[in-house]
Every structure is written in C-alpha cells, then in structure tokens.
Description:
With 157 residues, the chain is α+β, with helices and mostly antiparallel strands. The protein contains five helices and six strands; from the N terminus they run H-E-H-E-H-E-H-E-E-E-H. It has one domain. The protein has a five-stranded mixed beta barrel. The longest helix is centred in the N-terminal third of the chain and has 27 residues, at 2-28. Residues 1-27 form the signal peptide.
Amino acid sequence: MALVIMSTLAAKTAVLLLAIVSTQVAAEETITLSGRFEYRTDPISLDIIGRQVCFFPTEHSAHLVPRPRGDNRLPWFCFSNSAAAAKMLGFRLTVSTDACGVSGSATLTVSHYVAYPEEGDGNDVATLNFVQKKTKPEPIPCEIDALLNRKLHDRGS
C-alpha cells in the first residue's frame, strides 16, 4: 500500500513540476500587448498594490498572457521595473494631491512574466522592455472627490 501511495504522490509531483516548468518557459518569451496602464496613489491602492505600475491587456491581447491551463482570473499584472516603466510611459512615481494616480493606453513588450499562482495578496509581474505607442497619462480622479462632487451636483439640481 505504501508503495502505491508513493507512486501516486510521485506522479502528482511530476505533473505539478511539469506545469510549473511549462509556465516558466512561456514566461521567458517576450510578449507584445495592448491595453491600459495604471499607477494608483490613493491610500487603499498603495496599501494593497504598493507603488507598482500595472497593466490591463485588452480582450484582444489577454489570451497572450501566459497563465496555467484552467486559470480563469482576469489577466492583469504589474511591472517588476515600475520606476523604469513609469519613465517609459511618460510619468513619475510621485503622489499628487490633485489626483489619485494616472492611467493611459499603450502597446508594449514585456518579458520575464511570472504568474502569481493564487488569489489574494499578490499579483502577476513582468518586466517592461519597450513601449511601441502610448497615450498621454491622464489623472485618475479620487473616488471620494468624485462622490463628493456628484453629491454637490445633485444638491444643486
């Protein structure tokens, strides 16, 4: 009985290792994606994500993101080289008192994609290599300010 359990455990371990190696092999390739970049500076985002520039591929590009089979999470990631990414995308990693971050659209090339295997306190990361085209980063309005402005507008109507 112990021999059968060991054999089953060894087979499951081999399958798991094969899945990990397959993901890492795909991650070494460069990938060109289109989508939206964001750098959020509101307190909640800084607490959860920290000072990372993140990218959300378009539906058309999303299938290129290397994920293990059966991983149906929304494909998004942050750049492992966020300071360099911010510079390439046309902004600095500073906290503005007028907005809660910046966002824009871009077509870019990444490499060294590492998928975070779980849901929770982590995210996928990749290295930004090159920006082919980009829009000017636009301020992200703070949610509290947007809500306050809406309430003031509703009172004035």
